[in-house]
Amino acid sequence: MKIGILALQGGVIEHLRLVEAAGAEAKIVRYSQDLEDIDGIILPGGESTTISRILNRTNMMEDLRNRIIAGLPVWGTCAGMILLAKNLSNDDKVDGIKTMDITVRRNAYGTQIDSFNTLVNVPEVSENEIPLVFIRAPFIEETGKNVKVICEVNGHIVAARQDNMLVSSFHPELTSNTDFHKYFINMCK
Ligand code: GLN
């Protein structure tokens, strides 16, 4: 099982560490050809504007989008969620992958100082409570009919799944809890 991690900008090493801790092989993905032999891909947190700009400039956007449409399992965390959303309610600077039927609000909780941690039950993912870290996080405002809500915090949707696509507003890779990574690795089987 080989999980790719898109490594253009953002929290790459943290995901790599947790993928390995969860028992899979991790592979850094920088170019289109790196997409060829992976079983799934993680789009890390970072700056969605920057990541989308690099993807578009290198033509990797189209290859990545096509692989996802063809069924490659993908997990977008935070900025990665913004990239996968078909619609953004408050932004036109991100020209993303746009494959998932969700409407997302960027920086939905405010600025950096409004970042927060919480402990939540996510029955779809684990029997135990999971620590969730939110950093200038987005949340989901609307979901299409094929989207399954996986986690809500304070009435806002912060994790969801549609077929081969998983998104989370928060950063499991910034904790030592591997439950979300194990859930995604299972999606890749
Ligand atoms: N606010 C960032 C963006 O809009 C996302 C922050 C994150 O990934 N932690 O891309």
The largest pleated sheet is described as: 7 strands, mixed
Termini separation: 8 Å
Mean pLDDT across every amino acid position: 96
> CATH class, please?
Alpha Beta
Enumerate the distinct ligands.
glutamine
For the record, the count of structural domains works out to 1
Radius of gyration: 15 Å
Q: Tell me the CATH architecture.
A: 3-Layer(aba) Sandwich
Structural class: alpha/beta
The parts where pLDDT drops under 50 for at least 5 residues are none
**CATH fold node name:** Rossmann fold
CATH homology group: Class I glutamine amidotransferase (GATase) domain
Output the number of helix runs.
5
Count the beta strands: 12
User: Into which percentage range does the β-strand content fall?
Assistant: 25-35%
Overall morphology:
globular
Question: How do the strands of the widest beta sheet line up side by side?
Answer: 2-1-3-4-12-11-10
Residue share in helix: 10-25%
Task: Please tell me about this protein's structure.
The structure is a single chain. This protein has 189 residues and is an alpha/beta fold. The chain has a single domain (2-188), classed as Rossmann fold (3-Layer(aba) Sandwich), CATH 3.40.50.880. Helix content is 24%, strand content 33%. It contains 5 helices and 12 strands. The protein has a 7-stranded mixed β-sheet. The protein has a 3-stranded mixed β-sheet with strand order 5-6-9. A two-stranded antiparallel ribbon has the order 7-8. Strand 7 and strand 8 (129-134) form a beta hairpin. The longest helix is centred in the first third of the chain and has 10 residues, at 12-21. The model has no long low-confidence stretch (mean pLDDT 96). Bound molecules: glutamine (GLN).
